[in-house]
Amino acid sequence: MNFEIKRNVTIGTETAEAVMISRDQNCEIISIRHKRDFGPALGGTRFVTQGSIEETFHLAKGMSEKCLACFVPVDGFKTLVITPDGIPDEKLRAKLLAYHIKKCVSHEPDLIFGPDMGSPESVMKVALVELGMDYKNITGLPNEVGGLDIDKNGFTAYGVWQTIRQLQLESIGPYKVSIQGYGEVGSYLSDILFEEKYSVIGLSNILGTLIQLDGINIAELRKFYDRSKEDCLRHYLMQGNDVSGSYYDSPNRLFKINTDIFIPAARTTSFACQDEIYMLKHENPNVYSIERFLHDSETKVIVEAANHPLTYKAEKYAEEIGVLVLPDFIVNCGGMIGCYLEWRYREKLLNGDLNYTEVVSKVRNFIETTIVTNMKALLFDKFKMREKANELILTNREKLVTNQSVKALQL
């Protein structure tokens, strides 16, 4: 593969600190460092069949915002691994990732590569083995190599649940839920909602949509997800015990059902205003009209579990017609908190100086405290969520940069 790095790259109307690309005829790997305020830069590694520099930049910027919202003193960073012919097996994914990490770190030694779509703990572990077990630039690992099992422990989903719980405490009170993206985050979040007596009436993944208006039996569905992943929604209806509902081959069928809370937990730029869609097809070919979605679904609340699932214009439109939109970097910070603490304390976890179970419990406490604090700041009125969230991170950045008695997350 060929590798190149460019600095101070203009992307749209903004500037990226560094853009690093590995490329051959079958694969393009794009890593973008958003800023350079703190030294280390943390971000996930996402495998896709279509992607762009613009999408990678949106994700890197979102990581910067997420870190600031949580008082984590690292910069935002993101990697997209684009394989047009299909996502390769885990062994090849790990080899591609290890090659690219080594090249990037030779130029940017404080990058921290974390998990995302297509790079679970198993892939990150094999990449670590390729690079050397003492390699410091990887997080999102399994327990046996000093990791915190970010996906297994459902840290991102736990943070999204804490966000929804604050809505319940604020007496907004919606209970019917639909989730776009029944993957690692969507499945764990569904488990929690089911246990908390919420009615999950619709789920989608890359293959299709499952709808059951009286509530999907999430405990039964979990059995099929653990066995067949992407085929689980269809198998649930075909083979599940005492289940009903309908399955559709189109993921977009989810957007037509009436729901109280809608949770986008899939790709970047899933929704845009109608007049934006043509220009955004290169970033997400399946981008969907926010006007059409809100008309059909009558959604009252959008909880952004994905990174940048709505364009800013789409968020503004939703708020103008009375829909509460909770911004991504406030909602989905749980996984980032887990990854940061794993990276910071991995050596002590590996050596047994810290107890794994106790650390997992502390991570959950950090996530809950952060979400509760930020949601209280946002929910004193119910609109202009993005503006209030941006004000919050600007204040936090000033405190972190000037070291105004701010304690970063620590055990």
The amount of helix comes to: 40-55%
CATH superfamily placement of the domain at 2-143: Leucine Dehydrogenase, chain A, domain 1
CATH C-level name of the domain at 2-143: Alpha Beta
Question: Average pLDDT across residues?
Answer: 93
Q: What spatial form do the alpha-carbon principal axes imply?
A: globular
Under the CATH scheme, which architecture of the domain at 2-143 would be assigned?
A: 3-Layer(aba) Sandwich
Runs in which pLDDT lies below 50 for 5 or more consecutive residues are none
**Biggest sheet layout:** 7 strands, mixed
Query: How much of the sequence is in beta strands?
Result: 15-25%
Structural class: alpha/beta
Q: CATH topology of the domain at 2-143, what is it called?
A: Rossmann fold
Distance N to C terminus: 40 Å
Explain the layout of strands and helices.
Layout: E1 2-11, E2 14-24, E3 27-33, E4 41-48, H1 53-69, E5 75-82, H2 90-107, E6 111-114, H3 121-131, H4 155-169, E7 176-180, H5 184-195, E8 199-204, E9 209-211, H6 218-228, H7 232-239, E10 246-248, E11 261-264, E12 271-272, H8 277-280, E13 288-289, H9 290-297, E14 301-303, H10 312-320, E15 324-326, H11 328-331, H12 334-351, H13 356-378, H14 385-401
Parallel strand pairs: 4-5, 4-6, 7-8, 7-11, 11-14, 12-13, 14-15
Antiparallel strand pairs: 1-2, 2-3, 3-5, 8-9, 9-10
Helix pairs in contact: 1-14, 2-3, 4-5, 4-12, 4-13, 5-6, 6-7, 12-13
